[in-house]
Amino acid sequence: MKKKRVLVTLFIVACFTMAFSRGKTDTLRVAYTPAAPFVIAENELLEGINLWLWQRVAEDLHLEYTLEPMEFSSMLNALKRGEIDVSINPLTITGERSREMEFTHSFFASHSTIAITEKSSLEKVKQFFGAFFHINFLRGFVLLFVILLFFGSLTWLAEHKRNPNDFRPGIRGVWDGLWWAMVTLSTVGYGDKSPKSRLGKIAALGLMFCGLLFVSGLTASIASSLTVDQLESSQGDFNTYKKRKVGTVKDSEAESFLQARFFKDISTYDRVLPGLMDLEKSKLDAFIYDEPILRYIIQKNTDLHTLDILPQKFDVQFYAFGIRKDAISLEQQISQRILEITESQEWQIVLSEYGLSEF
């Protein structure tokens, strides 16, 4: 009798254990981190493109799950270790990640871009006039003054005796020569002073030819200086930011991309918004990340009104859900359903509601 009681007790415990284990296995641990418009978490309200897609998939496949918020880096590590079953964030499919996790069928294609702080009108004016005080630019003006003084003095020496009305004797005559040189070189041509002697006319020819060549070179230098200064100031190409302080999301594909391209000064953040706030405060020169996420956050957040998105597009990315490595059967089921949903007209409507379209 006692033996039967022991067996019955063991049987009941085993049943409860099996039931508990089965319940634990069947309920998926699904992690996310805010990445609007794909995952939007505001005031305890959870929505977004990826959340809609996951709910449709889970409903169609009769999957039980619990949603767990995590920081992006922690979420990736937990998925690699098998501590969570699914990440519904827009994860970029890469070869390195594929060795440690499974990916569903891709549901959206995007690219990285650059967010910068727009310059104010005052800063643009300062930048423009600042180019005129560049050391090479100032050297050009000094050399121009030397040319004018040389030919003006030479003309005065040739003219002050034969033409004292136009080129007066003494220091005032030197000024007359300088004035005549400036008027002649600038092609204003007042005609108030002009050389009469042969030597004076030869000096005038020398001024015209030398001055024309020099002024042409100086004009080209000014245009080049202003153009280079503008390119180096804010909106240069992708390589412009290699030596500047840029921000991105920690452990993201964007960070790997920047490191592989030898960016010197990279600041990483757990989420996009803190990085954009630092960019707004001029703590960063640029923030580089996925274009749809950057654009959505900047448009929705009034505190980021001075930020702008550059037209540069690079690092094409394909988004998918991440699945733990040993859940191949689960990944196949989810991938099949994602493929069916993304081929429907309903998917296009959902994308358009969040201001997105297929890449």
TrEMBL record:
Q: Where is the Solute-binding protein family 3/N-terminal domain?
A: 27-357
Record's keyword annotation contains Acetylation: no
Q: Which UniProt keywords apply?
A: Membrane, Signal, Transmembrane, Transmembrane helix
Domain of life of the organism in this record? Bacteria
Q: What is the annotated signal peptide range for this record?
A: 1-21
What the entry lists under InterPro entries is as follows: Ionotropic_Glu_rcpt (IPR015683), K_chnl_dom (IPR013099), Solute-binding_3/MltF_N (IPR001638)
UniProt key word Transmembrane helix: yes
Chain ranges passing through the membrane = 137-158, 202-223
* PANTHER family in UniProt: IONOTROPIC GLUTAMATE RECEPTOR
Protein's name in the database: Extracellular solute-binding protein, family 3
What organism, scientifically named, is this protein from?
Croceitalea dokdonensis DOKDO 023
